[in-house]
């Protein structure tokens, strides 16, 4: 019963996270959907193109791509503890690839191999982070992550609502 409740909390947190992820990656935190179809770019050379600003690699963009996918790796690990590493990493890679393809198809952003690599690395870090926390916290791991993620989700949602209201 307790385990099922924890799983349900994790599923709700994952759903909210996925909603925010779609809004950030596909819609660039924008409510104006009229931009769909106006920007189409593809870069298949890692660390070239869209991550180059003023002749230098924008490490901030790469780090944000890594960070935004860390929770995805954690959530996959929480819901599928019995899966091996490759089975946990595959949905991270496939989700990132789907976002990149959708950006191109919908014409709403740059499709970039660097983003795919950064996102996948972030998910892998999340998987490894969950493994480390599992070793440290044992049976309290899921509870700890759910509490921490709930607090983080409420704070992020509050920030996003403030951004929406402030930019009206």
Strand order of the largest sheet: 1-4
Quote the distance from N terminus to C terminus.
44 Å
Shape: globular
The H/E string reads HEEEHHEHH
Biggest sheet details: 2 strands, parallel
Structural class: mainly alpha
Enumerate how many helices there are, as a single number.
5
Rg over C-alpha atoms, rounded to the nearest angstrom: 17 Å
User: Low-confidence parts, pLDDT < 50 over ≥5 residues?
Assistant: none
**What integer is the average pLDDT?**
87
What percentage of residues falls in helices of 4 or more residues? over 70%
Strand content: 5-15%
User: How many beta strands in the DSSP annotation?
Assistant: 4
Structure in words:
The structure is a single chain. By secondary structure, this protein is mainly alpha-helical. It is 70% helix and 8% strand. It is built from five helices and four strands, in the order αβββααβαα. The protein has helices spanning 2-25, 59-79, 85-106, 113-137, 141-166, and strands at 39-43, 52-53, 56-57, 108-112. Strands 1-4 form a two-stranded parallel ribbon. Strand 2 (52-53) and strand 3 form a beta hairpin. Helix 3 runs antiparallel to helix 4. The model has no long low-confidence stretch (mean pLDDT 87).
């Amino acid at each position: 019963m307790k385990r099922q409740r924890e799983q349900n909390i994790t599923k709700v947190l994952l759903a909210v996270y996925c909603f925010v992820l779609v809004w950030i990656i596909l819609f660039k935190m924008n409510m104006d959907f009229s931009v769909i179809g106006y920007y189409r770019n593809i870069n298949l050379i890692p660390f070239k193109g869209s991550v180059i600003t003023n002749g230098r690699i924008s490490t901030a963009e790469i780090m944000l791509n890594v960070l935004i996918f860390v929770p995805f790796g954690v959530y996959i690990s929480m819901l599928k503890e019995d899966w091996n590493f490759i089975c946990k990493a595959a949905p991270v890679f496939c989700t990132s690839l789907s976002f990149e393809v959708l950006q191109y198809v919908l014409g709403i952003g740059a499709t970039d191999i660097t983003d795919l690599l950064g996102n996948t690395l972030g998910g892998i870090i999340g998987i490894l982070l969950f493994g480390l926390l599992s070793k440290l916290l044992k049976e309290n791991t899921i509870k700890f992550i759910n509490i921490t993620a709930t607090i983080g989700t409420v704070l992020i949602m509050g920030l996003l609502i403030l951004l929406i209201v402030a930019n009206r």
